[in-house]
Write a sequence for this structure.
């Protein structure tokens, strides 16, 4: 089996079927949350959409989300006159039906009792009638708001031409317990592979890990939706040295032991149904702690 055939099997094992119970569950939760929001904000008529890895088509079984946006018209004040009030109004709408936790610009939605649903709700207000750019309320830091654009983010990642590498790097992050912000990691992959879209995925990954290891201090990314107004350097600074350290170990293990030392051993087993099933067996090499997707938060 070639490296790329191996990686293709890894990706296959990390890909949801359309009727997988996990996807059916997250879609149902989304419908329920959307119904509550539309009823609560009937006069405001917010735009509610998929976001996160679901929209970007970068989902993996080991770490996934079904994030949602709830964006209000620029001239609408029924739900709140400020961004902070809109954020609070969304919390109020869901309070009682779900357990909620504030994040930097989102609301983490959990089932009553705390079960993780893989859903964050991102409230915001469109900047104008074009309904493209939005302002988000920030619950932490010195800034009160952030300007962004959901479509720009989705298009930048989904249409990057390197989604396979993105998904594998996300799996690598999970298997190594890396504290790396997904959005920044995705942007880093897209930037570093700009000139290597036609290269085999195995070579793309080795290039990424080599850059993480050897070019640590010079790694940089920009928010494609707001390059001058959203400084991502502090987030990247928090993760660049851990990326470097794990990349170094990864490349050493890859050279000495092969790809199974990075992503685990694969075994094909005829399940008698929809063809071959790939079983990923956890390798002792590289894994900081056992992966428990049902508990992990992206």
């Amino acid at each position: 089996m070639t490296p790329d055939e191996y990686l293709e099997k890894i990706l296959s094992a990390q890909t949801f079927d359309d009727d997988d119970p996990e996807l059916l569950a997250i879609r149902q939760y989304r419908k329920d949350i959307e119904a509550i929001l539309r009823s609560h904000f009937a006069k405001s008529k917010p735009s509610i959409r998929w976001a996160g890895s679901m929209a970007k088509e970068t989902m993996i079984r080991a770490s996934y989300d079904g994030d949602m946006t709830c964006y209000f018209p620029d001239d609408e004040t029924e739900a709140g006159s400020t961004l902070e009030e809109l954020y609070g109004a969304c919390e109020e709408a869901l309070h009682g039906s779900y357990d909620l936790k504030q994040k930097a610009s989102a609301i983490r939605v959990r089932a009553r009792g705390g079960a993780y649903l893989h859903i964050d709700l991102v409230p915001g207000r469109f900047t104008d009638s074009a309904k493209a750019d939005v302002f988000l309320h920030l619950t932490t830091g010195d800034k009160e708001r952030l300007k962004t654009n959901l479509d720009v983010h989705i298009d930048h990642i989904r249409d990057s031409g390197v989604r396979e590498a993105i998904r594998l790097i996300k799996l690598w992050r999970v298997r190594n317990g890396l504290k790396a912000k997904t959005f920044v990691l995705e942007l880093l992959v897209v930037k570093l592979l700009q000139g290597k879209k036609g290269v085999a995925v195995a070579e793309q990954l080795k290039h990424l890990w080599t850059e993480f290891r050897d070019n640590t201090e010079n790694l940089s990314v920009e928010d494609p939706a707001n390059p001058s107004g959203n400084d991502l350097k502090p987030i990247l600074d928090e993760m660049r040295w851990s990326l470097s350290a794990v990349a170094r170990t990864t490349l050493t293990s890859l050279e000495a032991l092969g790809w199974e030392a990075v992503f685990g051993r694969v075994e094909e087993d005829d399940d008698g149904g929809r063809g071959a099933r790939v079983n990923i067996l956890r390798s002792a090499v590289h894994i900081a702690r056992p992966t428990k997707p049902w508990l992990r938060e992206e």
Notes: The first helix runs from residue 3 to 13. The radius of gyration is 20 Å. The first strand starts at residue 47 and ends at 50. Residues 272-298 have pLDDT under 50 and may be disordered.
